[in-house]
Amino acid sequence: MIATNHALTGAVIAVVIKQPVLAIPLAFTSHFICDAIPHFGVDLKFNSRAMYVWLILDGLFALSAAGFLLWYGVESPVLLAMCGFVAMSPDFGWLYYGLNNKLGKVVEYDTLTKIHHIVQWYQKVPGIIIEVSWATLMIYIIIRAQTI
Question: Distance between CA atoms of 116 and 112, rounded to whole angstroms?
């Protein structure tokens, strides 16, 4: 999934669980569950202009969602931010392999990255429908949880 949806999923976990000791590890675990769901993906060459454009767009989506939630007045914004960041963090493994010029080459990934690679079985353009639906659902749950 895109980073924005990982962050929103982590934020939902923070809103629902409310206990950092439980919410943070669950947010981390949520990354792999979300990546097992069919989602948007295009094959972007590491360090390409297209990759940077996509990362900037995704970052702007995430910042816009965070700004909206802050404007809305969510409870525990620090916990939401922490869980959002932790939920995105497994993708830093791809950055490590890319920076070391090992991404997409025959290399022995670490155990966590192997699992990460296996669960991402469907990343294609039509997955954008799932991504938009997921983001909408996560924002709805966060807002709804504030009124309960």
Answer: 6
The C-alpha atoms of residue 37 and residue 25 are separated, in whole angstroms, by 19
* Residue in 25, 28, 37 with CA at minimum distance from that of residue 7: 28
Distance CA(20)–CA(53), nearest Å, equals 33
Cβ-Cβ contacts under 8 Å for 24 (sequence gap 6 or more): 82, 83, 86
Q: Is the dihedral of CA 114, 119, 124, 130 positive or negative?
A: negative
Q: How many CB atoms lie within 10 A of CB 110?
A: 12
pTM surpassing 0.85? yes
- pLDDT tens digits, residue range 80-107? 999 999 999 999 999 998 888 888 777 7
- Residue 44 DSSP class: P
Phi, psi of 104 (to 5 degrees): 80, 0
